[in-house]
Design goal:
Elements (H helix, E strand, L loop, with lengths): L2 E3 L11 H17 L6 E2 L9 E2 L7 E2 L9 H29 L6 E2 L9 E2 L22 H25 L6 E2 L8 E2 L17 E2 L1 H26 L7 E3 L1
Parallel strand pairs: 1-10, 2-6, 3-7, 5-8
Antiparallel strand pairs: 4-9
Amino acid sequence: MTVSIAKGGVVLDGTALHEVVRVLAQDAALTKGAAVADLTDNSGGTSGSGVVAAVGTVTAFTVTGTDLTPKAGFDAELAKVKNALRTVQAKLEGVATATGVTLGYTYSGGGTNGAGTIAAISDALTEVTGDSSGGLAFAGTNDLVTTYKNAIATLIAGANKVRTAAGLSAIVDNSGGLFQPTVAVLAAASGAGVDGTSLSGVEGTDGEAILTKLRNAVATLAEGITDVTGNNAYPRVIAV
């Protein structure tokens, strides 16, 4: 919406004064947000264009061959997700400061801030047999993934505060996570490896699916923040 104001403050298109004030505030937030450098997203995820899809859960699985999620490989990529979320949080903090928004939570999730660049996260794992007890354990994995879903939900809430201030629509959160007033340290490693017998493991495709959804959530968050930092729209309130 573009609002035209004539000399003396007369609104030419009949827009209510409170709407003019609101649009002015949103334009100011966009201008300030655009002064913050964009995130570089190398996660490899696919943005949901404003919708974060359900991350889901894993199912107990009994090995039948070379078809277990590898503990070492899963943990390595999960650590990258942890770093990606820390990088998103750091950028959110910068945008919130620039736009005068209070995020409303404490982020203590840990991880390494990529200084504006999200590193690649792979969802292609080399499946293993149960011979070496190197499989990802079913026990505890869903609880671990839930902590990441909660962190994502919290970051979405923060991103939405910034987006609302800038007059942008909210990101839809279907992640399955819950907002956390304090995001606790995220573990970057699963429990002890298993041999995959007696429903103790996680199927390879199941572990990969979780990583796919996590990195897609990261990509959606990154795009949602860049909508603010990369917005160079013309002012919507014009004095004529």
